Amino acid sequence: MPDLPASTAPMLQLHQVRKSYGANEALKGVSFDVAPGEFLALLGPNGAGKSTLFQLLTGLFNADGGEVRVDGHNMQHTPVQALGRIGVVFQQMTLDLDLSVEANLRFHARLHGIADRESTSRIEDVLQRIGLIAQQHAKVRTLSGGNRRKVELARALLHRPAVLLMDEATVGLDPASRRQLLDEVLALRDQGVAILWASHLVDEAEAADRVVVLHRGKVLTSGSPAEVVAHTGASSLASAFLQLTSGTPAPANA
Ligand SMILES: Nc1ncnc2c1ncn2[C@@H]1O[C@H](COP(=O)(O)OP(=O)(O)OP(=O)(O)O)[C@@H](O)[C@H]1O
């Protein structure tokens, strides 16, 4: 992959990424990138390869081939630098329910080597922004599901990552909490964060700058929601997604 000047370089770059489980090719040469301040929705039905991709992006295992770069750092050759530039909200909650919101965030800050004085102000800032400052000292167990997810988002942002990975982050939330979380993340574009939002829920991709449709380990199409609709000749993103991933044309009124 060519080196680009820092000002124009995408924050996340995937080039021909491949991963197999035995004979099962989960990722068959996946390429796309995410620019600073861009919200990219990775849409795929079950089994598309989204979880496998996230496992590669979070350093759980290496790709069999291809290249991943985060803020210019090659994930395989310089994983510490690459992973240090990533913030992630996993599909499964990973907070300690019996610790306070602040203690959960402090723990993460220390893991990233942020001094306590600095992390105190960052924790207050981020909790203010997401509207949870009043819950700073509450045990996570007392929070609603939606607020727990927001704490996870706050935690993912504490070390000021270049790339934010959201893996099916709205699973289990009610519609209002889903919308709130999506809006919080969309607002991060103004700060130049590159966002990769993986989901199988098409409505969450409507507001994306770009959509990548992943199916059976391959990128089927990418573009703005309007471009994806236009490519397929469907009348909505939902219908385009269905058409692409089921291999059948959508009915005219879908
Ligand atoms: N540990 C594993 N061992 C063997 N095959 C696996 C493993 N993990 C995933 N797969 C296979 O790889 C393919 C992609 O799965 P993956 O979980 O990455 O997709 P996904 O888009 O995240 O789907 P889901 O939303 O259902 O988790 C599937 O065919 C799956 O059966």
From TrEMBL:
UniProt KW keywords: ATP-binding, Cell membrane, Membrane, Nodulation, Nucleotide-binding, Transport
Note whether ATP-binding occurs among the keywords: yes
> Which Pfam families does the annotation name?
ABC_tran
ABC transporter domain sequence ranges = 12-241
Source superkingdom: Bacteria
Which Gene Ontology molecular-function terms are recorded? ATP binding; ATP hydrolysis activity
The record's listing under InterPro entries reads: AAA+_ATPase, ABC_transporter-like_ATP-bd, ABC_transporter-like_CS, ABC_transporter_ATP-binding, ABC_transprt_ATP-bd_su_PQQ, P-loop_NTPase
Quick check: keyword Transcription in the entry? no
List the coiled-coil residues. Answer: none
- What residue intervals traverse the membrane? none
Q: Which family does it belong to?
A: Belongs to the ABC transporter superfamily.
- PANTHER family per the UniProt record, alphabetical: ABC TRANSPORTER ATP-BINDING PROTEIN, ABC TRANSPORTER ATP-BINDING PROTEIN NATA
Q: What is this protein called?
A: ABC transporter ATP-binding protein
The species this protein was found in:
Parazoarcus communis SWub3 = DSM 12120
